[in-house]
Design brief:
Helix content is 82%, strand content 0%. It is elongated and about 55 Å long.
């Protein structure tokens, strides 16, 4: 019974985390077009800060906590290759989260140097990682 609750909370956390990971780079795309110091730029700063601090950071932490909790409940998974591949992708997803936090800080300080195209490309990274993670967990190809 505990496993089902932990799994449900893990999935809920992942959904919230992914929503933020998919939305924040899109905000960066629009923020890049705004003149630093303008009303639009200041609005984007508030939106980006609240998204990261109120949704993404707690969701990422919860995803890790519930994921580790599931591994404690089912340690046999450590012997399976799909788990190692999934965890590798989750680590890269976490690194991308941290990069987005750094870029948000740069926008906050009006020192962004990346063009819109950069953020348009980065907008696809979480999607690709998510696809890999879902395939590893559901299909368990190895």
């Amino acid at each position: 019974m505990a496993y089902e609750w932990v799994k449900a909370l893990h999935v809920i956390s992942i959904i919230a985390w992914m929503a933020g990971l998919l939305y924040l780079p899109r905000l960066f795309v629009y923020h890049t077009a705004a003149t630093p110091g303008s009303e639009a730029s200041e609005t984007f700063k508030v939106m980006e800060r609240r998204l990261l601090r109120a949704i993404m950071n707690p969701a990422m932490i919860a995803s890790w906590v519930f994921g580790i909790w599931m591994l404690i409940l089912i340690p046999e998974w450590f012997k399976q290759g799909w788990l190692h591949a999934k965890l590798s992708f989750v680590v890269v997803l976490t690194v991308s989260h941290m990069l987005m936090a750094r870029w948000r800080r740069a926008f906050e300080e009006d020192r962004n140097t990346h063009p819109q195209r950069f953020f348009r490309i980065w907008n696809e990274v979480p999607t690709l990682l998510m696809i890999g993670i879902v395939i590893f967990v559901i299909v368990k190809p190895f």
